[in-house]
Amino acid sequence: MAIEQAREHLKKFNYEDKIIEFSENTATVELAAIAVGCEPKQIAKTMSFDVNGKTILVLLAGDAKVDNSKYKQTFGAKAKMLGFDEVETRVGHRVGGVCPFGIKENIDVYLDSSLKRFDYVYPAAGNANSAVKLTLAELETCSGYKTWVDVSKIRE
Predict the structure, then answer these.
(1) Residue 8 domain-assigned (yes or no)
(2) CATH for 7
C-alpha cells in the first residue's frame, strides 16, 4: 500500500507522525485544503512528468500551474504530464496520492519556488486520504529533491 511506503520513507527522518489520515477524499487541492483546514495554495501538489523517457516529479503550490515556457527552459523539453494509467506504474503512487515519499528509484524530484511563500505546506502521503504537514526545511530533508526550480505561475 502506497501510504505505508510513504510512512516507511518518512520514518527515516522521524516524520512518520506528521502524516494526517482523513476519512474523506483529499485527492484534489480543494478537497485537501478543506480536510486539512488550510488555504488551497498551501497544498503542495505533486505533478508527474515525462522528460525524454525519464520520470520527474515537481511539487508546486496549490494555486500554481505550470508555465510551459519556464518548464521548457528549465528541463529542455515540453511539459508532458504522465497519463493517468502511467502514474502508479512509474511513480509508485496513484493519482490523488502522488508525493515524493516512498517512490520508485531514479525519479528526480524538484521543488517549485511557488512553495517558498509558506511556513508549512501539505503534500499527500501516498494515497487520496492523507497529507503531511511539513516546513520547507523538512520538505527539503525528506523529499530527496534535486533542486528548487521556477516553472510555475500563480493562478489569479
Answers:
(1) yes
(2) 3.90.960.10
Quick check: is 156 in a domain?
no
* Residue 117 amino acid letter: R
Distance CA 32, CA 122 (A): 9
Tell me the sheet residues that pair with 64: 154
Q: Flag whether pLDDT at 156 surpasses 90.
A: no
Q: For residue 155, is it within any domain?
A: no
Number of structural domains found in the chain: 1
Distance, in Å, from the CA atom of 103 to the CA atom of 151, rounded to the nearest integer, reads 22
In a domain, 154, yes or no: no
Mean of the per-residue pLDDT values of the chain? 95
108: how many CB neighbours lie within 10 A of its CB? 17
Domain that holds residue 55: 2-149
Q: What is the pLDDT of residue 155?
A: 81
**Over the stretch 38-97, which tens digit does the pLDDT of each residue have?**
999 999 999 999 999 999 999 999 999 999 999 999 999 999 999 999 999 999 999 999
- If 0-12 CB within 10 Å is exposed, 13-18 middle and 19+ buried, where does residue 153 land? middle
